[in-house]
Amino acid sequence: MRISKDNCSQHVPRAVPALLCVGLILPSLLTHNVLFATSLTDPGKRAEALLQQMTLEEKVGQLVLFSGYGTTTGPRNDQDQLEEHIRKGECGNVFNVMSVAQVQKLQKIAIEETHLHIPLLFGYDVIHGYKTIFPICLGETATWNPTLVESSARAAAAEGAAAGLDWTFAPMVDIARDPRWGRISEGAGEDPFLGGVMAKARVRGIQGTNLAAPDTLLACVKHYAAYGAAQSGREYNTVDLSERMLREVYLPPYRAAIEAGALSVMTSFNELNGTPASANRFLLQRVLRDEWGFDGFVVTDYTAINEMVTHGSASDDVDAAQQALNAGVDMDMQSG
Model's pTM, two decimal places? Predict the structure, then answer.
């Protein structure tokens, strides 16, 4: 993000400690981190100690998520440029990396060639299976069997973790009542109660009972919020809902996932009643943190911060980034 130091420095540290804790706990190469040689065994204390040594650019870098090798969505990054971003501490998180060898290559750069040796967090869309492919999420929901759904999510998480991943952008819990919306297949359909049951099952399957276990992934609830209510079923379109409809129909599955222990949330592309989700303090602060007590981190969807300019709510990318940070976003996916 291109953010001025004067306008942004007060906001960056709010998000960084939690993200550093996640980064210090999850990556498989964590034992090689030199910080383990210190007497600071508590991740929170290690994160705070790191903050004292970090430049503003390195703090912002921990809030940056870039696509790696073999990207399956959007434009492909130049790999040499990505590796240089990592070396400079300008990228603390990577997604779309598909093999142990590739994970190890980038993790080795982060741990051995950077100022503070902070491990990378690796994410990927493990939606309904990784190597073993299960039915689409809507099809799984049609079984009315949350135990079975939890089992398939557990198997997918184990396979993803074995490939070096730490984090999956799932479950997708958007309520969808317009079959014209193409992403309806990723969710649990039209009913908020059933959606909540399936959201909890998938979070339990993905995260297991102990995130420190080597066969678990960090869950990410998406797309917050009301992405499935886009007008005319058109992708990225605006959402215009009363607060009653929002709270009674669309929010319950997100809350169910949070109650099940999900520790990350992805903002949606759409605006809600005129305000893009990535700049929406009502959603990100009042509801998510104040009312639901969420204490994990919030990541945007792919280039959602850039798209706030397209929505007309930000004058340029700098303005959009500042709005996102002020609203409660902790990590930017791919906007740069």
Answer: 0.90
